[in-house]
Prior knowledge:
Helix 24 links the parallel strand 20 and strand 21. The strands form seven sheets. Strands 1-7-9-10-11-12-13 form a seven-stranded parallel sheet. The protein contains 27 helices and 22 strands. The protein is of the alpha/beta class. The protein is 41% helix and 12% strand. Zinc ion binds next to loops. Glutamine binds next to loops.
Amino acid sequence: MPACPSFGLSGQNKVADVALHSRMGVLRDLKKANEAYWADKISQEALLEEGKRLRLAHWKIQKDAGVDIIPSNDFAHYDHVLDHIQFFNAVPERYTTQKLSPLDEYFAMGRGHQKGGVDVPALEMVKWFDSNYHYVKPTLQDNQTFSLVENPKPVREFLEAKEAGIITRPVLVGPVSFLALGKADRGSTVNPISLINKLVPVYVELLKALKAAGAETVQIDEPTLVFDLAPEVKAAFKPAYEAFAAAGDTIPSLVVATYFGDIVHNFDVLPAFSAAKGIHVDLVRNPEQLEPVLKQLGPSQILSAGVVDGRNIWKNDFSKSLDLLKTAIKALGQDRVIVATSSSLLHTPHTLASEKKLPADVYEWFSFASEKVKEVAILAKAVTNPEAVRAELDANAAAIKARAESTRTNDPKVKERQAAVTPEQHNRKSGFDSRYAQQKKHLSLPLFPTTTIGSFPQTSEIRVQRNKFTKNEITAEEYDNFIKKEIDLAVSIQDELGLDVYVHGEPERNDMVQYFGERLNGYVFTTHAWVQSYGSRCVRPPIIVGDISRPAPMTVKESKYAASISKKPMKGMLTGPVTCLRWSFPRVDVHQSVQCQQLALALRDEVVDLEANGIFVIQVDEPALREGLPLRKGSERDAYLEWAVDSFKLATAGVEDSTQIHSHFCYSEFQDFFHAIAALDADVLSIENSKSDAKLLKVFIDEAYPRHIGPGVYDIHSPRVPAEAEFKQRIEEMLEFLRPEQLWINPDCGLKTRKWDEVKGALEHMVTAAKYFREKY
Length: 777
Ligand code: GLN
Ligand code: ZN
């Protein structure tokens, strides 16, 4: 039976949750508390007390669900990697010299600190593997040292749970992953992984402290094992885990956890873990790694089988999971198998119980974090005594069957249309040169055309009116009139500024994906299903439940109105198929490429409708294209790039040559997938660039990129209005790498989070700078 011998409880059903329950609480309680603290509305004590309340509540949910192995140290006020930076005393000096309280120093690293005469920017934050969660990058120095803080968080939280009567399994990010996910600080050249021998003794010290506090087992996460590893990273596992083995009984036993991919290509690392109690693998993403992993385990090692998806919201298919568990048990025996979620539940919303508005049939298809931990417990019982959970197994089978057969899921018309897609539909009528000649005439664009990325400030007035409309406090007509007034304002400001290609400002959009989801068949929406994206920021992804189609135009009304009052070309604004897919919870019953093509076909109709209504510049944003890139090089990545690029092309290629297609990306590191960006065949690309080295643009010359590019000339995340000279200098730098006739002048991204005076100030300088170069060339 699934047991965890490390607890010496062999004979009882043992199941585990692989750590990191969603942290936010039922009503985004943590977000609210953090933000109240940042706004000086609650005290530090009150914030810490709220953290404690949430931890206890989350442990209790798991205990009540019947989970035997419950994680601790999975909670974080901002980010769990940032916690490690702090408890290993790896805080860069620019923060330690500020003499802030530990909590304020922690938040300063997470989000910057500009208060009481202190002004420090945040550490860099990047996406966690292929998820939309962001972690704070360990930022290391040439002379980096590590030491353990007094009363470190993992020990504190273990004792806190113990006091509440729950013996937990603390979770740590492993030493190799911690370093491999880090970077050298500005001005340092250290290769983070070279610090392994300095860091490991501090881990040993922490592990000893955990053992002394009563921890029998620790989950040590080494998710970098799913990457293609640099040789020096691979080599670091041996000394690190040999040091742990040498510590013997003075430290808890270790379960090494991996997730989001398979580890088969890194099997040569496994001997390093021979003293570990067991290994956790993700069997949702890569069920095929089960058999090879079983062969690699040592004679008494356990397998923690991640069979319940930590990244999605779908009910587990018990029959599939049970097949995997039975295979594992057959090979290892019941005492050496733990049932677990595939990854942390950080990536799923808190509880389905909060959803009061989902259609009743659809409700039955989902499991959020609190339901997933119950699934783990049921599965563990099901492998030993299925009769004890017969009712649950039957209900699960019925729900899975109902979904498969639902008319919501299957739309024969969509399938017919997909079957009829031809290769020609992916290609524009002519090549870029001929298209551009027509566009130039049609749109009468000057050299160095200026434009913006789409959104203008989402003011509190906009939010108030949208809320009123959602609550039926104002009529659709009143709301429409309000939106028109906002568009009038956006257009008149662009007239004053003298921009060349206008946008309508997106006042009607709550979110760039949800807005489209709400207008498409095949989606459902939640009211409380928030997932942490970074710090206190949460997103509420819409859910794709069925075949996607577009019942009616989605953006034509606003764009057409905006064009009717504009002197200059109005740019239509759509979210691309890949981004719609990635920032939703996708279906798991059909491949993502199929869903993406359905989105592409819906968007294709929208693009064609925009053109038919007088919109001759259309931007299709794809900021999520890169995050969807499979983590390893090889066939999966190649296949992804092929279907992702094809979807974009299918969405955009239905227009005449004289219509100009733009796309936008919120990053500028294209080196590793430049050919995919080029293959999109977009007439104009706008990319985030202002904080990066202009040298990144060199790839466009090296690859002889023929089309047009607008590298962002200023940072839209900051309220700062850059001086005209800064714009000129930036454009000068760009001209070192791009031909003048290729260059567009625009900000890094949309301006929705800014205030109008900041926007006007910055764009005024931007336009003047563009005019200066227009005269010069
Ligand atoms: N058009 C969107 C906007 O301007 C693009 C946002 C994004 O790239 N994240 O807000
Ligand atoms: Zn952007």
